[in-house]
Amino acid sequence: MRKTIIETARSMALVLTSFFLSAFVADPQPKTKNLAGIWEMQINNRPTGFLKILGTGGEVTNVRLTPLGFVKTLSDSYEIQSDSTYIEKVTEHETNTLNQTNVVLRYQMDNPNTLTISYTIKNFHGKETYRRVPFTIVVN
């Protein structure tokens, strides 16, 4: 059991490291620069372990922390439509309910480190707040 947990943690570390490097090494487009980053959902100003990773090339991956490590919950691309709207083009969702759909999200940035997203999916209205996760890529 312990070996499986360690192997899972190593695998997730490799996946996240490769994503971070591919997502943030390229020069970002000016209109996507604000959104690119690692964002953690907050509830009542407390971290949840749910991450939204927005790459500079239009990639988005959502992961959540579980006792066994991170689990990918959504994989797709995103396209900014305006300074307040973007579309997530969902190709893979953990419950398959959003596979092959386009989700319109309205966003607002009160400051460079706070992102609020609102959306409607199948008559459900949602609103989520995210805080930017600071990180540094070290290249040896």
TrEMBL record:
It holds the Pfam family DUF4488. The keyword Signal applies. Residues 45-135 form the DUF4488 domain. Keywords: Signal. Residues 1-25 form the signal peptide. InterPro entries: DUF4488 (IPR027991). This is DUF4488 domain-containing protein.
